[in-house]
Write a structure and sequence with these properties.
Layout: H1 12-32, E1 43-46, E2 50-55, E3 62-67, E4 69-75, E5 81-88, H2 92-110
Parallel strand pairs: 1-5
Antiparallel strand pairs: 2-3, 4-5
Length: 120
């Protein structure tokens, strides 16, 4: 039964991703129904080390490196795909600062008229 999931074999990470995507979608639906535009950024914060694993460009050995954050494409509650940010607790302050800067730029792009040029 490839590709199927069963509640008995879902770990905490899977549940966290599933929970944050469902919560974000529910809030977006609620506020969207009130006539608001909604952009949500699902984030899972982990207190364990995060690692990135990939195959070396030369096709040789796998490379494993520690990272502060990453993103994954997860199944959303409506059958769509949702980009979920995964951030280590140590990197959370930097991530939030960056998110704040990005939100300011995005808001300016959505504003009526010519957006101000912003450097980050």
């Amino acid at each position: 039964m490839g590709g199927s999931t069963h509640p008995d074999n879902q770990d905490n990470a899977f549940q966290a991703v599933r929970g944050v995507t469902a919560a974000c979608a529910a809030l977006a639906d609620k506020h969207g129904n009130l006539g608001h535009r909604v952009l949500y950024v699902p984030v899972v914060v982990v207190d364990s080390p995060l690692f990135l694993c990939f195959l070396a460009l030369d096709g040789g050995e796998y490379v494993l490196e520690r990272v502060d954050s990453g993103a994954l494409l997860a199944p959303g509650p409506n059958g769509d795909r949702v980009l979920v940010q995964v951030v280590s607790i140590e990197a959370l302050p930097r991530f939030l600062e960056s998110l704040g800067r990005d939100a300011t730029v995005f808001a300016q792009l959505l504003a009526d008229g010519e957006p101000e040029r912003v450097t980050t």
